[in-house]
Structure formats: structure tokens, C-alpha cells
Specification:
mainly alpha
Length: 67
């Protein structure tokens, strides 16, 4: 009976190690993407979504003022 418990421990240690590695890679990719966007904005480039957001925000303020 003790052999089965030990096998579960070994399997769990392998699975946990693999999962931690996957999470670390996902976090590394996320941080790299964040840094890329941050550097693009630092240069002065704006994303088209940001321009559209400001345009809609301005339009909303104009419509409010007319009411």
C-alpha cells in the first residue's frame, strides 16, 4: 500500500514542476509584450485604438454640451 502513495508523490512533483514552468513562460511572454508596448509609446507612437478612444471621448463631451 505504501508504494502507491509514493508513486502519487512522484507524479505530483513532476506535474507541479511542469505547471510552474508553463506559468513562468507565460509570465515572461506577457512581460515582454508589456515592455514592447511601453517602449512604442515612449518613442511617441500611438496605437490606433488610443486615438479612437480619445475621439469617442471628445464626441461624447460635445454631445453632452449640446444637450
Amino acid at each position: 500500500m505504501r508504494r502507491w502513495r509514493a508513486s502519487y508523490t512522484v507524479e505530483a512533483s513532476i506535474i507541479v514542476s511542469v505547471m510552474l514552468g508553463v506559468f513562468a513562460l507565460a509570465m515572461q511572454n506577457g512581460i515582454a509584450m508589456y515592455e514592447e508596448i511601453k517602449n512604442q509609446q515612449g518613442i511617441g507612437l500611438e496605437l490606433c485604438e488610443v486615438k479612437e478612444f480619445y475621439m469617442y471621448q471628445t464626441l461624447g463631451e460635445i454631445v453632452k454640451d449640446e444637450s
